[in-house]
């Protein structure tokens, strides 16, 4: 395969699995910011949350994903959007994240 054969059109969506894997990695990094990062943990969490929101936006509309997974991405997009606007919840492992009492599985 030549480079030209592998080149993507700028309008083409990224690989759904790669985008999903990258988003999960970002979520992990948001939960436990890298202590050796070049920016403070609050800034790192804020920037990471914004990128997660962006990735979830594309995942909820990605045609390669099944409808149920797109729906999950849409719900997460809404929740992470609020989190990204409210700023980071600093505290590292001391931060408690709660889930709703009744999960919505469809």
The low-confidence runs, each spanning 5 or more residues with pLDDT under 50, are 1-7, 90-106
Share of helix, binned: 55-70%
Shape call = globular
Please indicate the count of domains: 1
Number of strands: 0
Largest sheet: none
Mean pLDDT: 79
Regarding quaternary structure, what we see is single chain
- Indicate the radius of gyration in whole angstroms: 16 Å
- β content, as a range? under 5%
Termini separation (Å)?
A: 42 Å
- DSSP helical segment count: 4
Order of helices and strands: HHHH
Which structural class should the secondary elements be placed in? mainly alpha
Lay out the secondary structure.
Elements: H1 3-6, H2 16-31, H3 41-59, H4 67-86
Q: What does this protein structure show overall?
A:
Helix content is about 55%, strand content about 0%. The longest helix has 20 residues, at about 65-85. It starts with a helix and ends in a 20-residue tail after the last helix. The chain has one domain. By secondary structure, the protein is mainly α. The radius of gyration is 16 Å and the shape is globular.
Short description:
The protein is mainly alpha-helical and 106 residues long. The protein has four helices and no strands.
């Amino acid at each position: 395969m030549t480079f030209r054969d592998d080149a993507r059109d700028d309008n083409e969506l990224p690989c759904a699995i790669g985008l999903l894997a990258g988003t999960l990695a970002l979520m992990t990094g948001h939960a436990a910011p890298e202590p050796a990062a070049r920016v403070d943990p609050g800034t790192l969490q804020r920037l990471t949350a914004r990128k997660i929101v962006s990735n979830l936006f594309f995942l909820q509309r990605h045609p390669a994903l099944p409808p149920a997974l797109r729906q999950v991405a849409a719900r997460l997009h809404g929740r992470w959007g609020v989190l990204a606007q409210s700023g980071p919840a600093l505290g590292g492992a001391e931060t408690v994240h709660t889930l709703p009492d009744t999960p919505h599985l469809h």
